[in-house]
Amino acid sequence: MASDPKSVVAEYFSRMRAGDKAVVDLFHDDATLVGLGTTRTGKDAIREFYENTIERAGPSPRSAGPLLADGARVAAEVYIDLSDEVSIHAVDLFIVEEGRIRSLSYFLCAHSG
After folding, report:
1. CATH topology of domain 5-112
2. Which end of the chain has a smaller Cβ tally under 10 Å, C or N?
3. Radius of gyration of the chain (CA)
């Protein structure tokens, strides 16, 4: 598995597009996932989030621009297409340490149908 931050984030998006629930393997055991007013801490809580989200919504992210990296921080602007034909515009901010995601904070920008 790649260890530089941009490659780890690129792998994250590849797994999400494939509906691969093993996306959680890219996270540290004590990672945090922050978004929609909630914080999930630890791999088990993050696994539950991704398993439910992938099963219910079938999210498929597509890039709205290049990954922007500054050391361990990587930002991505994406459109997330859902199985109900809704598309969500989001910005994801990753912190990657030792080849794994330490934290992911996501911010929803707009909804379009």
Report:
1. Nuclear Transport Factor 2; Chain: A, (3.10.450)
2. C
3. 13
How far apart are alpha carbons 4 and 24 in whole angstroms? 17
Q: What is the pLDDT of residues 68-97, one digit of tens each?
A: 999 999 999 999 999 888 899 999 999 999
User: In the chain, what are the domain boundaries?
Assistant: 5-112
Q: Which of 61, 52, 57, 62 is nearest to 21 (CA)?
A: 52
pLDDT tens figures, 13-23:
999 999 999 99
Burial class of residue 37, CB neighbours in 10 A (0-12, 13-18, 19+) = exposed
Confidence of residue 110 (pLDDT cuts 50, 70, 90): low
- pTM of the predicted model as reported, rounded to 2 decimal places: 0.92
CA angle 108, 29, 56 (to 5 degrees): 45
